[in-house]
Amino acid sequence: MTGRPPGAPREIYRIDWLPGTDILRGICHCGAEHTAQDPVLMWEWMLGHPAGHRPPRTTA
Prior knowledge:
- By secondary structure, the chain is of the alpha+beta class.
- The protein contains 1 helix and 3 strands, in the order βββα.
- The chain has one helix spanning 39-48, and strands spanning 14-17, 24-27, 33-36.
- Strand 1 (14-17) and strand 2 (24-27) form a beta hairpin.
- The relative contact order is 0.21.
């Protein structure tokens, strides 16, 4: 496994299972959320959610 190059943007994608349901909740690194039952549809949304968007800025 190779590491992330220095200075490369860090994009974190998270998919949670909602207990007691068949629903997956995806949270993009920009903060957008989406739900789906099909894991393939969830990853398609996650990886295609909108092209070129950036994570929110944090204040120092």
